[in-house]
Design brief:
By secondary structure, this protein is an alpha/beta fold. It is built from ten helices and nine strands. It has a nine-stranded mixed beta sheet with strand order 1-2-3-5-4-6-7-8-9, sandwiched between helices. Helix 5 crosses helix 6.
Amino acid sequence: MTPDRRTALAGLLKLAEDLPDHELRVEGVPFVSGAVRRQRVTYAVPGRRLSAWLLRPASGNGPWPGLLALHPHSDRYGLGGDEVAGQCGQREHHYGYALAARGFVVLCPDLPCFGQQQAPPHMPSGGQWESLWMSRSLAEGRSLLADSVDQLRCAVAALLDYEKTADLQVSVLGYGLGARLAAWLTWSDQRVRAVWMHAGLGQQRLLLERGRLLPRHLILPGLWAIGCDQAEVVADILPRAVGISFGRADQVALPEAVAPVLEAVRARAETIPRARLAVLEGDYDHRFPPEVLGQIGDQLRAWATA
């Protein structure tokens, strides 16, 4: 991506210039479940405070490499970060818990419209609340994407200030919607050293041509007008570490929509000495198979401790 295009993209995204001091606070009593210690924390984002699970190994004193674990969409607005932290939902979505057990300190935030950020009692819920949030942001000249990335930038700052986070080292792992937001966060925030995106990437133009609706969190007016799509954003993350995994039978993030992203990222990697790029593909659908998570954990750990 040229400097001019990068400037144009930042102008479209319209992230906040001044974010609140995150003011990370430990809340309540921690508890140990198996190999993981769970602790509830709160931190400031624009206009409010959010709570999230902070997970770390149950044994040892750290410090450990930091990781932000971003949850999928799945139209399950009540789950959010609690599912990733292993508190509810599907077992294969408990990747925040799994990576804490492998030696990371993991923050599991709720994305806008999910968990604690669902609709207040007087408003429509679920997808309608998501549409309302997006509509309000667009009317204000921003986007739900910008709101999401600004919140996640605050989460990165909070995790970096946690006393058990090693060497200002923060990685991001996202699945589905979380994968695409992980790409945008990493593109926007140089404090993220490594990103892994599972079962969520795809060229937006191709997805729309195949009749797939874009997630409301990912709509950025003017993106195509400056010659950008998902591929350009992900490729521009390099030379920081980039990991991509997907199933060849995925009917949500279609493999044919992933292909242009892979092509752009691989072309960029060829221009970078010792580029850190890993791609995993397998014969599965939109799921997150445990064996894939195991390989991702190994690679993220290697990148974080190199």
